[in-house]
User: Fold these one by one.
Assistant:
Number 1:
Amino acid sequence: MKKENDYYMRDAMRQYGGGFVMILGTLLEHADPINYEKLEKTFPEYFKDYREIGEKLKIQNEHGEKLLDLKSKDGNYKLGDLIYDKQGNFLMTAEEAEEELIAMQKNEERN
């Protein structure tokens, strides 16, 4: 079923997907509820992956930040990543974490 909150998922597909996923995002934008459901049942892995990316886009949009990169599969953070606690609450961006780490290291060097 077509969901209004899937806007960010579809946007993520169009921005970050390969050729096929980009077109899938556009198809979803124009699909009626029946065809939307058919596509979701046919490609559940894309819906799962891009819903997660879409959640990042939504949070960054709300915080006025731009997504520069996505979290890698190996768990290493890159510019633009969002860092969450174990309950899924937004904590900070990777840039903010890096700034805090640098400040802590400078503090340790002084002591």
Note: Strands lie at 82-84, 90-93.
Number 2:
Amino acid sequence: MSTQFPHLSAREIEVLKELLKGHNNQTIASTLYVAPSTIKAHRKSIYRKLRVHNIQEIFALLARDTTEITFTITIRNPDHVTFEKIFTRLSRSIFE
């Protein structure tokens, strides 16, 4: 699975970012000014589109892709890669 999620809507990406921060439905709803039931619906849609059943499976997908990306970046330019650069590139590839 690619770390890019073009099949998720912009709002689903926002919700996913908040979920990955560990926020619950109520907190996300408050942040995004919507009802908790709306977040629940987005969450179900995200899980369906990513073919997962829970947030732990999303982390597992990202961890698998992180390993691949880190390996690729390190091989290309081992002298100039820091963890911060790798994380920044990973974040951009996931959410842009």
Note: DSSP finds five helices and no strands in the chain.
Number 3:
Amino acid sequence: MTSKTIKYRWYTDSGHAWLRVSKHVCNQLGILDRISGFSYQSRQGTYLYLEEDCDAGLFLQAVKDKQLPCHMLPTRYEDRSRVRHLPNYMAGIKQLKQDKLLDAAIEAGILHIKVIR
């Protein structure tokens, strides 16, 4: 990952907050598949709005661990944030559901995996 300064901004309303970050940066940090469905994404898929309770902390810890330079932009506050109207981020959740379904099918004896050498 380059040492380019990472810019991020908090979006808040009366009930919650989200950290807006580049989806590309999350991918480079290796956390994209660990982001929950409580976060949102821009309609173009360029930015993620990481929910404050878990996903934002995951991002900030990854940035800290890699000692990357960051710049926080001013917070944007709205009575009811427009972030709430964006699509939920689902990549991590879809994979988790698929994994659980496979495990359940194997345990129930519905699915058998054969290793071919």
Note: The beta strands are 6-12, 17-22, 40-41, 47-51, 70-77.
Number 4:
Amino acid sequence: MGLSFLIFGNEYRRVTVAIPEKDPLDEVRLISTRQVRKLTGWSDPTLWRRCHDGSFPPPRKDGGRNVWFASEVYEALKKLAPKQAASNA
């Protein structure tokens, strides 16, 4: 399954993110800020803005670093995909 996002910056470009099939370990797998940015194609400011406005789950702390449960990230990306498609139409 792939999700497409329109990235705003100096220019417009479309980024497609591949969401893996449901893995039972996603419930406990932690992914870093770098991995979330790689999955989404977002910059740090965009990631934190989406966390603060509630459109993306906030991180958890693990030994002083920000991490997300993989399952939460995948669910959030699935919810964002229809909104992105509607805003591009």
Note: The longest helix spans residues 70-88.
